[in-house]
Amino acid sequence: MSIVGLLTFANFNNVMAQDEAAAAEATEQVAATDEAPAADAVVAEPAAEEETVAAAPADDTKSFHQMLKEKYIQGGAGWMTPVLLCLIFGMALIIERILYLNMATTNVKKLLDGIEENAKKGDWKGARELCANTRGPVASIFVQGLDRIDQGLDNVEKAVTSYGGVQMARLENNMTWIGLFIALAPSFGFLGTVVGMVQAFDDIETAGDISPTVVAGGMKVALLTTIFGLITAIILQIFYNYILTKIESLVDQMEDGSISFMDILVKYHK
User: Fold this and answer.
1) How far is Cα 31 from Cα 208, in angstroms, rounded to an integer?
2) For residues 86 and 189, what is the distance between their CA atoms, to the nearest angstrom?
């Protein structure tokens, strides 16, 4: 019986030891399972922070319109507004001149061929109607000459020359004002620069210290007004030169057309 009891007690201890080992393993597995999400959460947090940091610059990006508005405000409305007005009025006059000059362009060769066809038949009235129905300064000059066809070729030539000067002046209309705005835009910019520099020195005198923080405001006004003034002048100057080129082309047409027109009159007028 003693031997049987000892064997039974030994088996019972082995069973208890196995049960405790199994329970310990289960506890370790549960703990490992609980730690895994925590580790994943720890890893996920830096990733989320990196995504937030990466997304932050996208929110800070500004459109060109917003940047231009911001720089305009920083430059000071008192000095930036005159520069802006120069750009607006200058571009308005430029658009008007471009439209006028494009409408004043005439197919001179076709017009002269039509005048010559009527001149061969002696139909000077038909030639005049053809010129009157054609737009442009060249046709207007021919109308003035044909109105005086009965007064002799000398009077016709004088009329063509005189009215050519009138048409040339009309082509150059408003060019003086465009030139004025080209000169005013950088002048306002430089004036803002001078005022900004004075403001910077006043701030230095008040603070008693020459530091970037003290002079930054005045220097920014100085630089921004100069930049915007020069940009405005450059834009207006480019269109101004384009208009001058267009006017020169039309003047050449007027001169060449007038010479050919007089040749036709000399050839067919009796």
Assistant:
1) 67
2) 11
Query: How far apart are alpha carbons 180 and 224 in whole angstroms?
Result: 21
Q: Distances from the Cα of 23 to the Cαs of 15, 18, 27, 31, 180, in angstroms?
A: 12, 9, 6, 12, 96
Which DSSP string corresponds to 17-84? HHHHHHHHHHHHHHHHHHHHHHHHHHHHHHHHHHHHHHHHHHHH---HHHHHHHHHHHH-HHHHHHHH
DSSP, collapsed to helix, strand or coil, labels residue 106 as coil
**Residue 97 and residue 242 in contact, taking contact as beta carbons nearer than 8 Å:** no
Tell me the average pLDDT across 109-125.
89
Instruction: For residues 133 and 143, give the distance between their C-alpha atoms in angstroms, rounded to a whole number.
Output: 10
Q: Determine the average pLDDT of the residues in 76-97.
A: 89
Distance CA 29, CA 166 (A): 103
